[in-house]
Amino acid sequence: MKNNYFLFIFLILTVSCANPIPRKPVLRKTSSFLKESVVLNKTMNESEENMFRVLMEKDSLTAYLASPNGFWYTFNQKNTDSYKPKTGDHIFYSYAVYDINNAVIYSAEEIGEQTYITDKQEIIEGLRNGLKLMGAGDEATFLFPSHKVYGYLGDSNKIEINQPLIFKVQLIKINRKNESN
User: Fold this and answer.
1) Is the confidence at residue 180, as pLDDT, over 70?
2) What is the rounded CA–CA span in Å between residue 80 and residue 67?
3) Which of 12, 35, 129, 141 could bridge 69 with an S-S bond, Cβ 3.0-4.6 Å?
4) How many whole angstroms separate alpha carbon 99 and alpha carbon 151?
5) What pLDDT, in 10s, does the model give residues 56-76?
């Protein structure tokens, strides 16, 4: 009886200590979807860049600058203040959003004055990078490809998916980080 008891415990320990056998995946995924996505995105970016080039050629009196962040801009009004926002600065700005044909999507009045603490709050990438190029009192026009603004989601209201946009931005005031209000 005692031997049966030890034999029973030995069998349980032997069976319970076996390594589990991993199951093989039923479906193996390939990278073809990613390759197709890359090709689609490159084609879309090239198309948007061509649209902006045509727009800039039509507006030949305005000199647009290429940003290292992947968009174009021009200053409609340039102030003499050369201070640009730095991390932690509190800035006040307003902007209007236009489509590629210069039709108003959101007016500055509709959006209202905005505040932003530089690099400490989340705003769309294009606007975040564009504001850093401006000084207080500057007014600029930015040509943003869709991946720099609302991308493949749009804004679920007036801005469509993958829509390149024109932003007309006025930087009203910069409160420097170490300035007291």
Assistant:
1) no
2) 21
3) 129
4) 14
5) 999 888 999 999 999 999 999
